[in-house]
Amino acid sequence: MSTWSEGPDRLDRTDALILEHLARDARESFAHIGRRVNLSPSAVKRRVDRLRDDGVIDAFTVRLDPASLGWATEAYVEVHCTGATSPTTMRDAFVRYPEVVAASTVTGEADAVLQVRARDVRHLDEVVERVNAEPFVVRTRSTVVLTALVRKDLPPA
Fold first, then answer.
1. How confident is the model at residue 153 (pLDDT cuts 50, 70, 90)?
2. 3-state secondary structure of 123
3. What is the DSSP string of 50-100?
4. Which site among 10, 40, 91, 115 is 20 to 30 Å from 66 CA-CA?
């Protein structure tokens, strides 16, 4: 199993542990993290600053619960495109949809997969219809999420 510490040379086990704590709660104090990883608060801050400078930490953010905001339906939509559709064309189209929370090109039969959040199934149907109306889309195939079993933002440390 790959771990963060086996990745880039700039990440050691302590960096990985600090990242785990920040990923769980970005508001956790450097003092609290330091107690967990056996460093002083200032040493944790220096490491976090270095991780930010190196681009390992891109931003500190808030993780929202979509269902509590009224976006209770989640689906993955496979998008099949015309032969010469570029990733840039797909991105420029999909970024306009507030319901598309992630979009990726993929291997296999589909050209892209969208992660979509919607208020309900009717709203999801409207979103899929709009995606199907894009000039480069040949067809879509949707899979509705029933229960999210595992959600991780991080690879294992």
1. low
2. helix
3. HHHHTTS---------GGGGT--EEEEEEEEE-TT--HHHHHHHHTT-TTE
4. 91
Q: Which residue has better confidence, 62 or 104?
A: 104
Q: Do 33 and 27 meet the contact criterion of CB atoms below 8 Å apart? A: no
Please state the φ and ψ torsions of residue 29, each to the nearest 5 degrees.
-70, 155
103, 115 contact by CB (below 8 A): yes
pTM, whole model, 2 decimals? Answer: 0.75
Residue ranges in 13-134 assigned as alpha helix (H): 13-24, 30-37, 41-53, 87-94, 121-132
Task: Give Dmax (Cα) for the chain.
Answer: 57
- Other CB atoms within a 10 A radius of the CB of residue 96 amount to 10
First to last CA, the chain: 10
- HSE value, Cβ hemisphere, 13 Å, CA-based, for 48: 25
